[in-house]
Amino acid sequence: MTTAPTGNPRTYQVRTYGCQMNVHDSERISGLMEQAGYVRAAESDEPDVVVFNTCAVRENADNRLYGNLGHLRPVKDKHPGMQIAVGGCLAQKDRGEIVSRAPWVDVVFGTHNIGSLPALLERARHNSAAEVEILESLEVFPSTLPTRRESTYAGWVSISVGCNNTCTFCIVPSLRGKEKDRRPGEILAEVEALVAEGVLEVTLLGQNVNSYGVEFGDRLAFGKLLRATGGIEGLERVRFTSPHPKDFTDDVIAAMAETPNVCHQLHMPLQSGSDAVLRSMRRSYRADKYLGIIEKVRAAMPDAAITTDIIVGFPGETEDDFARTLDVVREARFSGAFTFQYSKRPGTPAATMPDQLPKQVVRERYDRLMAVVEDVTWAENKALVGETVEVLVAVGEGRKDERTGRLSGRARDGRLVHFATAPARADGEHSGTGAHGLASGAADQIRPGDIVHTVVTYAAPHHLNADGAPLHHRRTRAGDAWEKGRAPRTPGVLLGMPAVRPS
Is there a contact between 133 and 16 (Cβ–Cβ < 8 Å)? Predict the structure, then answer.
């Protein structure tokens, strides 16, 4: 048991920046800390250990980290024994430079040795000196580490780490390494462990999720994995992110359409609609292929919601290139898009390319892109007004819920839905829910993790509202777990090398 000088367990907080991979890595960091005897501190408390899990993708990632480290320095000066650790992609990139710029940091660890964190903290405390440990390759697959899950109803499951692509704007492959695939049986065992704890939804994670199987020579492994999840009793929703268009195969589309618990949602990065820019980005597909995939997806699943990532202002992008991106956005009919202004990342080929665009040009194009994206997504959402949606009730999705008396969650297609909790029937026996699902009896309460069917009454570009009484409310095991105040804590899962089970 790790204890503070007073004899109480030492406390910790993890502060996360970046993508879903980082969010899931932070769950592992929390699991490791608690296995080592630390206790999570309340948000308002000053913890004994602060762990920053960093991202290196955006231009302001460095400034954000060092700014936050600067704010912590006087706190640490007043808190004897406090430790600060920095991990993640920025730590893998900057290494010892972090301690040079912020000497009050105690531990720096990389993307390949998350499991070393508790030992590094102990060593730094014992030696009264900073510990910097960055490995060049994976020490153990992260999913073999204990995990403190943040949700009772939805869980991340890594199927691979690393990336074999060489996109010129991306620094991730150099920080996460080459792709390493988990064996299918290990993945399914982790999913089954989550479902046994009450989880209803899992998202399969990979830097390039649909290239899964490349390491053990099975090009169809990802589609087989999706189908295999259909045999897991109690698993209601399966999502995955993010696939690469170059690896998207027809068998994956068939698996999505034919496996009932796989959601009809696809997040597939476009990056640019210009073939010339895609070539310069070293993205090995062209706009026509991208649109062809979407056409096939919609033919198999007309209700599919498709979202994307787009970069504006890549070096050398012309006005004609940008116009082609707008054309693809209109043709693809995205239900959502994460849009980014290109920013240089040191260490990437794009950072030294000629024809870097002025910031004002990039900003102006970004504003125009946002206007088109919002027009498209709003039109797609308006088409759902009057439709019934199945919502998995969530925590923290609706920032205005307290004021509006609504709850929020995600539809099966991934759209955010804010819904009223007016009197409803639940499984034929529950009724009378009030604001925030607090009802006349505990049996009627709508809880995070429960399932609600409701009718869309209003559409905005980024969400749907359902302001009538829910048609149906189903209490779930995930809602029971939330009510008991427990989140799944799955141990590391490592089961050898079984094959994917047939669907």
Answer: no
